[in-house]
UniProtKB/TrEMBL annotation:
Major localization class: cytoplasm
Top-level taxon: Bacteria
CDD domains (UniProt xref): NDPk_I
Active site feature: 115 (pros-phosphohistidine intermediate)
SMART domains in the record: NDK
Residues where ATP binds: 9, 57, 85, 91, 102, 112
Family: Belongs to the NDK family.
GO BP, sorted A to Z: CTP biosynthetic process; GTP biosynthetic process; UTP biosynthetic process
Protein name listed in UniProt: Nucleoside diphosphate kinase
Keywords carried by this UniProt record: ATP-binding, Cytoplasm, Kinase, Magnesium, Metal-binding, Nucleotide metabolism, Nucleotide-binding, Phosphoprotein, Transferase
HAMAP family to which the protein is assigned, alphabetical: NDP_kinase (MF_00451)
Gene giving rise to this polypeptide: ndk
Subunit structure as annotated in this protein's UniProt entry: Homotetramer.
GO molecular function: ATP binding; metal ion binding; nucleoside diphosphate kinase activity
Amino acid sequence: LERTFSIIKPDATRRNLTGAVNAVIEGAGLRIVAQKRIKMTRDQAETFYGVHRERPFFGELVEFMTSEPVVVQVLEGEGAVAKYREIMGATNPANAAEGTIRKQFALSVGENSVHGSDSVENAAIEVAQFFSGNEIVG
Ligand code: GTP
Ligand code: MG
């Protein structure tokens, strides 16, 4: 079964939406096979979002991701990467489809409640940044 990496971002944990987001995830048939609440360090956030280093919003993004706790997760299911992207909705909640996590919960393009890997290859890299093998129980 395919796996993807998920982050419930600070805007969502701050508003006690961890359970609500997880209900959407599980309702879509994805299984949460690893999960922990952490405070991301600046190093972790800069590494994780390294591809965006040259973008104008990079500093703001790192500030946001380290501002308050996040919940990192590994989700498992058939076509998990694409399925999670679908139920997350568009990056900007103004463009997100009805019923998606971002449509329901996101505050803005920056504070958009969740992250999901954009490919199977990146999912493996992102999972390995935050979880050791024995923390993932399928
Ligand atoms: P992720 O799942 O978080 O990677 O979102 P994404 O793949 O839908 O978007 P992308 O990878 O293009 O951007 C990564 C993250 O950077 C977004 O989820 C936002 O949190 C943030 N971001 C993107 N564009 C903007 C922007 O214009 N302003 C701000 N403040 N943040 C942005
Ligand atoms: Mg992305």
